[in-house]
Structures are given as C-alpha cells and as structure tokens.
Amino acid sequence: MKQKPSIAFVAASWVALFTGMLGFIIGLWNATMQLNEKGYYFTILMYGLFAAVSVQKCVRDRLEGIPVTDIYYGISWVSMLLTLILLIVGLWNATLLPSEKGFYAFAFLLSIFGAIAVQKNTRDAQAAGKEPENIREEK
C-alpha cells in the first residue's frame, strides 16, 4: 500500500500554489499596464496551471500503466513549453522594471510548482486510500 503524503507537504504545496497565484494576480491588479497586457499575463498563468497539471497527470498515468495517447501526452508537453516561451517573450518585450519582470517570472514558476505538487499529492492520497486487488479477493 502506498503512503499518503504528509500533512506538512500537502500544506506547503497549497501554500506554494496560492502564494504564486495570488502574488501574480495582485501584481497584475496593481500594475500600470494596459488591460490587454494584464489579460495576456493572466491567460498565460491559467494556461500554464492547466498545462502543468496535464503534464503531471500524463507522466503519472504512464508510470502507473494507465493508457495515455501519444497525442495528448505531446500536446501537454508542448502546452507547458509554450506557456514558458510566451511568458519569456512577453516579459522580455515588456516595459517593466527588471525587478517586476523577475517578480512575475518567479510567481509564475512558484504557481506551476504548486500546481504540480498539489496534483501529485492528490494522486498519492487517492492511491494510498485504495485497497490492493489481492487483499479484496482474500476477504
């Protein structure tokens, strides 16, 4: 039977996710950039979170022998890489201070890490709660 993730790691994962997301969103809210720029960065954040969870799920499913089509696996990885490229290009061309660019980059990366860790914890907790097939048959 698999072990559940510790409460400390689960809490740290959620804190990382919400700290990164809230920091990024509060930064956008307070930014002096145009609304279309704010929408661009917000969309990259949401797309990045979805892509990160998709990549984690695909990788985990394949490790556990759950079928994942090659096309979905590939789209998940391309999506994750695309969000990083779009963020880098956007920040490179933005008229922001270098410290602001760094803030958005690290808030984004913290959010992605948090999303992956939360997804992993969810899967680990589910796996730990399931009873192995051979034990059920013996009862």
Structure report:
The chain starts with 6 loop residues before the first helix and ends with a helix. The chain is mainly alpha-helical and 139 residues long. The longest helix has 32 residues, at 98-129. The chain has one domain (21-126). The protein has helices at 7-30, 35-63, 70-93, 98-129, 133-138. It is built from five helices and no strands. Mean pLDDT is 90; it is low at 134-139. Keywords: Membrane, Transmembrane, Transmembrane helix. Residues 9-61, 72-124 form the YiaAB two helix domain. One of its GO terms (biological process) is DNA damage response. InterPro entries: YiaA-like, YiaAB. The chain crosses the membrane at residues 7-28, 40-59, 71-95, 101-118.
Salient structural properties:
mainly alpha, 5 helices, 83% helix, flat, disordered C terminus, YiaA-like, transmembrane helix, membrane
* Structural class by secondary-structure content: mainly alpha
* Number of structurally distinct domains: 1
Strand content: under 5%
Helix content: over 70%
Radius of gyration: 18 Å
